[in-house]
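ok so for the tutorial part 2 we go from a plain amino acid sequence to predicted structure tokens. step 1 is just haveing the sequence, like this:
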Amino acid sequence: MTTDRFAEYVLSEHERIISETSTDIAKAADRDYLVSGISQTDLQSPVTRKLAAVILHRAMQRLTHEEDEDWGIAKGFRDIYDCRICANAVAQVAVKGILPPEADNFFGMTDVLTDEKASKTIIRLYNKSQRITKLLEL
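step 2 — the prediction. this is what the tokens look like for a chain of 138 residues:
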């Protein structure tokens, strides 16, 4: 799944869950917000875990209105600062159990997110009961 398709999937699931069709202008504004600053090359490439984290975090801010939490376990990820501009997004999706790390101390920033994992991640974004809360106990 490309990064662009991942963003579209995040938006379509939000629309499905709220059972409301947004106007074309609102959809475009939401999409622009989710992918702002992501290059066309990255948008057309397979979605990496760090770009998925950025899109998910932006969706949490704009669509689900979730507040940021303390970084908790993410403080120990040895790759958390491999992408300084996405470090907070990575930390937030990890501590909230939306996109868990690859290992206890490694997020896996540049790993490609499979279609199956992308789907499960989006489900966890909108359904808090599906989130992986065991991470909070590490």
